[in-house]
Amino acid sequence: MSQKILQINFKFTTSAADYKKLVAPFADPIAAVSGLSWKVWLLNEQNHEAGGVYLFRDEASANAYLNGEIVMGLKKQPTLKDISAKVFDVVEDMTEILERVLKQQKEDTKDEEET
Fold first, then answer.
1. Which residue from 28, 64, 97, 115 has the least number of CB within 10 angstroms?
2. What is the mean pLDDT of the chain?
3. What is the pLDDT of residues 31-75, one digit of tens each?
4. Residue 6 exposed, middle or buried by CB count within 10 Å (0-12, 13-18, 19+)
5. Domains and their CATH numbers in the chain
6. What is the distance between the alpha carbons of residues 58 and 46, in angstroms, rounded to a whole number?
7. Which residues of 23-62 are buried (b: 16+ CB within 10 A; e: fewer)?
8. What are the strands, taking DSSP E only, across the chain?
């Protein structure tokens, strides 16, 4: 079972403030999605682009989300256009190395702050 990254990008035709109001109600339902480990919300206000990067436990969870009510709801929004979605494999061994290094750096920083 391999983790999957889902990247969804789109353009919005409103102000960034109105875009945030539009997508705010999606936050809780997204948090409850089965198989979702995390999501990072993306916003490029200047270019009117937004989206998200998601980590799913497996391909089935990513596909279920892509074909589910939340994404279908986004596609129905008249102020969102050029919606694209890409699924990526997670390179597990390289990711684990980075996680270990970052964890150690965080611990070292914490130790320095305490002394």
1. 115
2. 94
3. 999 999 999 999 999 999 999 999 999 999 999 999 999 999 999
4. buried
5. 4-90 (3.30.70.100)
6. 34
7. beeeeeeeeebebbeebeeebeeeebebbbebbbeebebb
8. 4-12, 36-44, 49-56, 80-89
